[in-house]
Amino acid sequence: NERYMNDAKRILDNYYNSKNYEENQLLNRMIYMTDLSNLASNLTVANDIEQAYDLSITFPMIFLLVAVLIVITTISQLIIKERQQIGTFKALGLTKFEILSHYLMTTLSISFVGIIFGIFFGPWLLPKIMDIKYNIIYSITPTTYAIPWLVAVLTAVAVLGVVAFITWFIVNKELKVSPVESMRPAVPKIKFKGKNAAKPKYFLKIVLNST
């Protein structure tokens, strides 16, 4: 133990100092002394534990960011695809709240199914992969998996909030235009250069020789 390092060193020094030269050479004296926290094998295990802890945080964060990007892309494409349908809804007299509620229920329902799947499947899959990795090096006892309910609930609320905000932002942008504009296909924006636009410095000159 680190607290008794000085006492242990003094006892060992006294032990070797009490021996004569021949006995010291035979015993080869003390090579090194270390506490448990700095022991080579303990340092390796401690580093592996710290790495496993970091991976258990990094992997879910990466998966969460990928999921958010997929949600943004999916909702954007869904609204673009159903742009004319939204215009039809407005032309039929549906209110903005009714149209927004429809898409909110759709996206939130799909997200909720994904959250339930992730809460029960994620805490089992990730430790299983870690067990396969560390069983190559160590003899690990059978592990049990526990679902982090507090983190799961907070993550679910955060994800549903992000999905609701993205849906509201994209649909609300489409609801601001008139029904006629929504029912027409979106016109791509083309930028034209003005008269004062800067000309390129270099031109490719092609010379055609007639034979």
Radius of gyration: 34 Å
Task: Give the overall form.
Answer: rod-shaped
Helix content: 55-70%
Overall average pLDDT: 78
Number of strands: 0
Low-confidence sequence ranges: 206-211
Order of helices and strands: HHHHHHH
The total of helices stands at 7
Structural class: mainly alpha
End-to-end distance, in Å? Answer: 97 Å
> Approximately how much beta-strand content do the residues carry?
under 5%
Largest sheet: none
Give the helix/strand layout.
Layout: H1 5-17, H2 21-27, H3 40-81, H4 83-91, H5 96-135, H6 149-175, H7 179-183
Describe the model.
The protein is an all-alpha fold and 211 residues long. It is 68% helix and 0% strand. It is built from 7 helices and no strands. The longest helix is centred in the first third of the chain and has 42 residues. It is rod-shaped, with a radius of gyration of 34 Å.
The gist of it:
The chain is mainly α. The chain has helices at residues 5-17, 21-27, 40-81, 83-91, 96-135, 149-175, 179-183.
Highlighted features:
211 residues, mainly alpha, rod-shaped
